[in-house]
Amino acid sequence: MSNNIDLKRGLDIPISGTAVQKTKKVIKPDVVAVKPTDFRGLLPRLLVREGDKVLAGSPVLADKKSPEVLFTSPVSGTVAEIVRGEKRKLLEVRIKADETQEYVDFGAKKVSALSADEIKDALLKSGLWPAFIQRPYGIIADPQARPKAIFISAFSTAPLAASPEYAFRDEMDNIQTAVNAITKLTDGGVHVSLNSANYSGSPFHKLENVTFHVFSGKHPAGNVGVQIHHLSPIQKGETVWTVSPLMLAAIGKLFNTGHYDMSRQIAVTGPDAEDPSYVQGIAGMQMDCIADFCKGPESEVRFVSGDVLTGTNVGEHGFLGFHDNQITLIREGNHFEMLGWAKPVRSSLFSFSHTYFSWLTPNKKYEMDTNLHGGPRAFVMSDVYGKVLPMDIYPVYLVKACLAGDIDKMEKFGIYEVLEEDLALCEYVCPSKIEIQSILSDGINLMMKEMA
User: Least packed by Cβ within 10 Å: which of 79, 248, 401, 448?
Assistant: First the structure.
């Protein structure tokens, strides 16, 4: 086992609404959606038409650049609607679910008897290949590549994140099967990072055929990108793959049962969640299914697929993302506060910079909303980003290089090592209210275009 890597920088946002460890209900959605927008760089090719019948595991989309990469339906039913946006961009394939679910039978397989090519073929045909995220750039892994190593973060420090110990308490056999399979896809082994605060309480510490690493510290210590930075920094020309425990469970179920099963425990969290807890749901389910969790009118609540830092605002009629097992309900901050800057004593607000007196109550949780309490302005040169980013890069210079579209400087300042989630806290504490994640996303897209 590796030594404990203690990260000194970071921030745990004290937001209220942690899900209690109980499953409130089982959700059988009426409509689910397959969303190409869940995957960076995907050029989708539609394989179905409205009115077509599909089974759980039937191909719905393919990647034009890699036609063998398929995206399959999480339920059996009828293709109800194909939603397009500007310039006919494909946004969603909506499927009306059957009352009784039927699955494509891919056949249960004994992983130990399969070769790497057979495992890869099974994952491609089932639609589970998009579970692998390739760094740099955070794109779907190239099926023709062999990564330096595969990394898994077995804990999350994101705000109100689902508890791995609860969410995967019944999935460890499937996760072990998945680990046994993916070890054949790389020569560098599978690396699993654990939280030192709960090492013995994590079921992941019993996994076999992996290399363990232990991390301690505040968010973003649980981000797999931060962990890779400290374990095996990505150099130009290198690729690594990452996969989440959520996707490992689905991969394991594929080999153990022969079914494409995207069911999952989903944490419904946030300050505006009534009785925040877990639901048994499925990838692509509609937010209407958890409307009864809202404290107030749905029109005043932001429905976020994921956490408040990096999740997607999908709206009250939107759909859960492919990679998400958390929904955050937070009040829209559309109110104006007169002379807010002149009120230093505000006990209901949290301040990282000690502008308010929240530092006197370190254990207090705050009912936050989406209000920025200010507007965008010019960069303020300070070390505030460095206080929350436990990586040896210069975030201000990286963001400026992205703004300028300077590829050489983006490489110099660490573009290969980061994704938006790694700099999300920099955006949260930014005194200039700069949309750092959006700027970084544009920089990554430019790199993909110019370095292809």
Answer: 448
